[in-house]
Batch of 3 targets.
Target 1
Amino acid sequence: MTYLTGVISASDIKQVRSQVRTAVKRGAQMLEMRTDYLENLNTEVFRKAFTFSKTSNLPIIVTCRDKRQGGANEYSAELRSEILVTAIKTAADYVDCEFDNYVVSQFREKLDLALAETSRTRLIVSAHNFDGPFNNIDRLYRDILTVAPASIPKLVYTAKHINDCFDGLRLLSRKHGQAIVLVMGPEGIFSRIIAKRLGCFANYAGISHDEGTAPGQLTIDELRNSYRYDAIDEKTLLYGVIGSPIAHSLSPAIFNACFGDSGMNRLYLPMHVQDSKEQFYTFMQNANQSWLGFRGFSVTIPHKKNALDFVRERGGRVEPPAARIGAVNTILIDSEGNFSAYNTDYAGALGAITSTLGISAQQLQGTKAAVIGAGGVSRAIVAGLRDVGADVVIYNRTVSKADALAAEFGCRAAPLSSLASFKADLLINATSIGMFPDMDKTPLVQKYLSKDTVVFDTVYNPIETRLLKAARAVGAKTIDGAAMFVAQAAAQFKLFTGEQANTRLMRKIVAGRLGTLNVSSG
Ligand code: NAP
């Protein structure tokens, strides 16, 4: 069992009461009393706080963290050991003592004496590194067990990049008995979520964002509601979105909701892989280990080309549209560790057009399309449109890029400045013009639009862009970026699971996240 542990970081008894009640309400399975947060701490203050915490009927860890290891207040070693001894005498389930302190004989003797008089309380021996990974985490784990063989070792360190997480995760997967290994910082977030899959003894979570006690610590609500915490077990299959930045991504919310909706034992995680080919390659090697259970990734900026190169170099299958587009947004890993690569932006763009207009892809043959932009999304759209026989003109600010793309896919190019005179059945904005926060911008104003041109804006934040509002105002049919986003995600869901996604649920989540109630189309 991995205890979902609510961290009580109260400065007075009033706060203890409110935090304990909230932790219980949110679904904590254990409490950690961080007594170092209590002001004017003494054994009397501790007893009051502990007595109230016991009313929760949850197991309790008592910690009085040394300031040098992240403690909130500077309390003396004598007081800290006194608190832990009092906790043992008042039947705390666990006490947490730093390894650095436990190796000091006076500290250890007091604790060991109190522990010897009860079978109720178990010792957690902890080590923290806020600056980076431990030099040798495996040796530290062995050292703790040598000095305190009956203890639960707890090792917590900061990841400087995502690849720092894997030493800790590997140790968790190979531990003997109970252990806690957690990685701090934004780069460590995914490892905190999957710690339960690897049987970490306790996973610490904040009661709310204001009351978190470690960098990158998620709240109980986030773990349970966004990351399917209750459903995770040792067989959970893992997926994630790789990119940089990644915190804004809507993908974890929509995939986790769909996995939950379909009753699948799968979990989807945000993976911040910094902008270098080397980091990406190292990450993919680290992630491809059978004990981790990764089965697939969505890939976004800046790693779409790296993903293509990686899968090619590993001898994996690259589906033809992805090879032609020169970018991959989906990677699958089979149970033997083999890779395959896909591009669902292509299918997503075509799917958004055909499903919104209620036509088949073949019916787009001969359609005159004006595509604004010559970046990554344009490539996928142009490839899709050309494959179904549409007649495409690419308008771009940097004309040389439009020329190159047009030459590659057999279409025409024009400068963005000539867009006002475009003649097409379908106008597609594949630039970031009009995207949050520049929502007052548009690639084309209303007077150049007519009801006979379908307007598709790939921007999905906001869902209704200025361009789409203008198109609606002249009576034109519109396709929004959320429709494309959902269609490409649905194609990924099919690749990941072999099953159809609940696109209505996906659309509802995208709309909800972007603060709009428009859930009718797509
Ligand atoms: P990209 O590769 O960086 O390309 C950006 C394109 O936008 C380039 O053609 C660039 O022109 C043009 N551009 C940017 N700012 C401009 C400005 N101020 N004026 C004129 N042109 C400008 O980006 P991408 O990956 O193709 O993404 C483009 C957009 O697609 C994103 O911003 C996003 O809104 C949207 N998108 C939608 C989905 C979806 O599922 N709906 C998914 C991904 C992206 P230059 O060549 O002259 O620089």
Note: Confidence is low (pLDDT under 50) at residues 516-522.
Target 2
Amino acid sequence: MNRVFMKTVSSVKPFSLVIFGASGDLAHRKLFPAVFELYLQGLLGESFSVIGYARSEKSRGDFVEFFRTSLSDHGKKFEEESQAWERFAAKLEYVSGAYDTQDGFIRLAQLLESLEARNLSHGNRVFHFSTPPQVFDDISTHLSELNMAVCTPGGICSRIVIEKPFGRDLASARELNRRLNKAFLEKQIYRIDHYLGKETVQNILSLRFTNVLLESVWNHRYIDHVQITVAESLGIGSRGGYYDQLGCTRDMVQNHLCQLLCITAMEPPNYIDSDEVRDEKVKVLKAIRPFEGCFDQCAVRGQYGSSADGSAKGYRSEEGVLPHSTTETFAACKLFVDNWRWAGVPFYLRTGKCMSSRRSEIFLQFKEIPKNIFSAQQSLAPDGVLMRLQPDEGVSFVMKAKVPGPEMNLRSVEMGFDYATSFAERSADAYERLIYDAILDKPALFIRADETETSWALFDPLLNHWRDTPPGDFPNYAALSDGPAAAEELLKRDGRRWFSRS
Ligand code: BG6
């Protein structure tokens, strides 16, 4: 029997999912595999349609084939899933049309109505904007003018799901929000930060808010400081032209790393599946001390040059990048969340491209014990809680233990769990979870307008300062290394260092 028939689905209501930018890279790499996987898991039911919309002229058959290629590129074995695929493919539709004129949208509206009559989905629509932000405004305007994304008298509101970047600074984020809010209610707007769809990130909430042991030490009394590292081993690949306009602070820090900080630092919401999660995150963002007065002491930027062994080229030699580009591919900063829980506890954030390994983790380092009763010569790595977000997902307490033997020698050990051995269940891709939540109309894992704006308000002054003081030392770290020396200095000045498991 096919897997899809083995589960009962109760909560999903019949729906239509429209993917704008359906011939694009994101749809091909992430959205199509995620939607099909949700179907295979039995989570979508049978009463739905998925409609691709893009400029490219394609027949429905071509689109079905394109969708299928995306799945096989992601290792899907059609022999095993052939029955499910046939049923799923029958739910696929395609509309080719422009974004700057209404014609295609009128055809889309007609198609939606006929599909809704068949699926009985009563205006339960999700529109995923998987397009460059330049066309967000056109899409919103047409959807709004044609009343395609409305709240029905039955209480169902269509949702629009949009991808970052949500602006490139506070002014543009506000303008984007203003335009979106002109066309839709805020509760209809689902801004994606795919980090919130990651299992290991959601697990931070369950770890914190179900374990008395952890929650009781999760504050300034026991935590010396927090480190958030998102190191990527790859460079910018074929995205040079795009990335060079952005840099790593806009691409990663203002959104993904800030979200990790919020989840780590926030107060418990009253309920987990509610808007209160977002209220709590905004409170954290508002409590972060502004950079003003501490730009050069509190933040570091970097750009990779070629690797020491010559195997990886430098950023300025990447395709689409200006030869004298001053765009940062690495950023680190020290932030303070000036509230009761975190008073005086620095949060060190760092992220970079082309680093020595791919590693995303959060480390909360405990304070020193009041008195060392063991040999003073034993200098050991500090204790803490390590949340390994990817790869090698897991959580551990880093602590000291006595090495067996006649002497009282201590060594750092870890006590914890690995996803690979603790759970038989597969971890869903972040997009699976987020698309599923958008279909279920559950906004808790999406970004609200005030979150993006508060976060931009924090980083704007730093970005302006960097713009006005071009770096004289770029490139300042070798590809496949651990980043610029200044990032080590950032912690060293405070008598600390970046955590390393080895
Ligand atoms: C994206 C950034 O949002 O996140 C990319 O634009 C980055 O530059 C990517 O590589 C990292 O995501 P993940 O899930 O691979 O850690």
Note: The longest strand covers residues 223-231.
Target 3
Amino acid sequence: MATQVVVAAPAKINLCLGVGPVREDGFHPLATVYQAIGLFDDVRVRPAETTTSLTISSERVDVADVPTDRTNLAWRAADLLAAHHGIDEAVQIHIHKRIPVAGGLAGGSTDAAAALVACDALWGLGTPREELLALAAQLGSDVPFCLGGGTAIGGGRGELVTPVMTRGRFWWVVLPDPVGLSTPAVYAEFDRHTDGAAPQPEVGHDLLTALRAGDPALLGPALSNDLQPAALALRPDLEARLAQGIIDSALAGIISGSGPTTVFLCESADHAGAVADSLEEVAGALGVFVAEGPVHGARVIAG
Ligand code: C5P
């Protein structure tokens, strides 16, 4: 058995997030386009003697609210993979966090996807992709996307992923917010806004055309997020952050997923650097990041 495996786990953003009326199981039907971006947590696993444990480190991100017990999604991923193979293995999991917590960037989901990949490699299981995707879907709606990364349409409750053709790279400025937003709370607010009568969502052709063309000027007006009005209703102060990015010349700004992180589309790496510099002042202690997309999904980088 390897002595340790380290997996890089990317953040995701939603380029569009179409949301339908709540289903009987409490989830909402989604028509979304995910993109994995170059902002990574590292998830390291090592064999443990008897019991699994989990530790977290971070330089900038506030990790006070991240559980370090078996309720952590990465720990649950390790347990789920072991149970799936009928093996009894314990691991030390260490997560180095760079992705803001409860930010709408799928930080917890991507750590879970990474834990599946890391334990699969550590235990030498070679689990078929389809089985890993099914386990990922049990852990959360966007965990399957985090396994594959890139750019992909998400259907169902977000767990059914189909890769999308894109050309070139897109440059994003990511502006985290110090106060996390609860995803269920944002969906509940969405239900109140739409009175449970939202239309069935679809992915727009203009977005797919812009991605195929690799043209950020086309992509800007095609970005959309049905959860944005609900997130802004819960956090009206985010409106000013969105406006600031546009004043600072980004092509477009959008709330990421259920928020509160805002992301800004830029023309190039240099343009993104300039927009990020001008947002430093509103960013505060959490800082502001430049990230390119698309990038790969959860992938072994050492071990
Ligand atoms: O799937 P996941 O555990 O990440 O979802 C977290 C919560 O987000 C769910 O409990 C639900 O309240 C909400 N959600 C939803 N519809 C989706 C995905 C998530 O209502 N498609």
Note: The first strand starts at residue 5 and ends at 19.
